[in-house]
């Protein structure tokens, strides 16, 4: 929701208009700041509550990234950021200087005025089911990195320590609900992808990488192999991140996918 929901919103227009909501119909949707609801009285929504609450929502980013208790600093989200924390009277600064989610490797730098011991806990996303890797000052840390858990580094930290954690991205479909498993959105790691045209697909919903390939020279852009657009064996479809879709640009997030 952070990267694809709030992060996928259009910017607030100078006159205060915001994107009120998004549609995810099978026949596609567009992002727009025009609120087309009309009240029975004839009044239109010239001013939306979201005009005020959306900037507040964005301001809450900082409160979603880090948490702490007496002994541990928790990293919940991986947006580039800096946090200052104090433990036992010693000041600690943790700097995330990566480009996540536009790269799968996340990098942290520790700044302390003198050595201090604490636990650094990193959240492992539920989609991170590949060969996850944790590196401390250039050395691989042999530890279990399990989706939907926290991986913990406990040590005496020195100024300049570097921590890297990598969750390799892979393609997977996520169904709209348990009843309609054939209606699904394509994801790449934490990023929701959308198709460029309305389509019914033919392919293995459990193995999208077998028929959807990366487009050379275009990061986070994918294309289906020919033979997977129902009714048109010679056509292909292109997928790109939802958050890169601009105003009034059509996108197709959920599509029907039938078994071959």
Notes on the protein architecture:
With about 260 residues, this protein is mainly beta. The chain folds into 2 domains: about 65-165, Immunoglobulin-like (Sandwich), CATH 2.60.40.1180; about 170-260, no CATH class. Helices cover about 10% and strands about 35% of the residues. Strands 11, 12, 13, 14, 15, 16, 17 and 18 form an 8-stranded mixed sheet that branches. A 6-stranded antiparallel sheet has the order 3-4-5-10-7-8, with no helix packed on it. Strand 15 and strand 16 (about 220-225) form a beta hairpin. The longest helix is centred in the first third of the chain and has 10 residues, at about 50-60. The chain is flat and about 65 Å long. The two termini are about 30 Å apart. The mean pLDDT is about 90.
Summarize the SSE layout with pairings.
Blueprint: H1 2-6, H2 50-59, H3 61-65, E1 66-68, E2 72-75, E3 81-87, E4 90-96, E5 105-112, E6 116-123, E7 133-136, E8 139-140, E9 150-157, E10 162-166, E11 171-175, E12 183-188, E13 191-195, E14 200-202, E15 212-214, E16 222-224, E17 238-241, E18 254-258
Parallel strand pairs: 2-6, 14-18
Antiparallel strand pairs: 1-2, 3-4, 4-5, 5-10, 6-9, 7-8, 7-10, 11-12, 12-13, 12-18, 13-17, 15-16, 16-17
Radius of gyration: 22 Å
Number of continuous helical runs: 3
CATH classification class of the largest domain: Mainly Beta
State the CATH architecture of the largest domain: Sandwich
Quickly list its features.
6-stranded antiparallel β-sheet; 3 helices; Immunoglobulin-like; mainly beta; 8-stranded mixed β-sheet
